[in-house]
Amino acid sequence: MSIEIGSRLQTVRKHFELSQRELAKRSGVTNATISLIEQNKVSPSVSSLKKVLDGLPMSLADFFTFEAEANTRQIFFEKSEQPDVGSGDIHFHLIGAGRENRKMCVLREVLLPGADTGAEMLQHEGEEAGVVVSGQVELTVGEKSRILTAGEGYYFDSQSPHRFRNLGDEEAVIVSANTPASF
Hints:
α2 (20-27) crosses α3. The longest helix has 11 residues, at 5-15. 22% of the residues lie in helices and 27% in strands. The protein has helices at residues 5-15, 20-27, 31-38, 46-53, 60-64; strands at residues 90-95, 105-111, 127-134, 136-141, 144-149, 153-157, 162-165, 172-179. The protein is an alpha+beta fold. It starts with a helix and ends with a strand. The chain has two domains: 5-58, 434 Repressor (Amino-terminal Domain) (Orthogonal Bundle), CATH 1.10.260; 79-179, Jelly Rolls, CATH 2.60.120.10.
């Protein structure tokens, strides 16, 4: 499923009755940034989009499933019901996106060869855990780094600076969970 982030951002912004200028002010980005995203002239990274959404009362998951009705009774989720909340060479397929009051975030992560969460280490509230299903992933948490292969897992405090990289020649797949539900 290909989602046009720009038109979705414009729809969400208008739903909250905000101008581009007001959203930019609330999220700490320039008005031009909001305009370029809405025109699909730039494709924001996950962290950039999250910064823009910080100006709204909305998580990344809510953003990507904005039009979907919440269903607290759904148990099984087909691939088509797992929106990709990632960007570039990293795909985060969110399981249970439409569930109201989710307390955890479960992802099927697909990292293409060479994919990297970025030189700037990630940090956020909560905890993360996951298992590599296929391929190999280099995980750096603080000063510690390790290459994980199929069957190996991790669990750490997300406030520790961390980074994921696929150093292999094939895609890597991870099934992960984190709290609180940040997507």
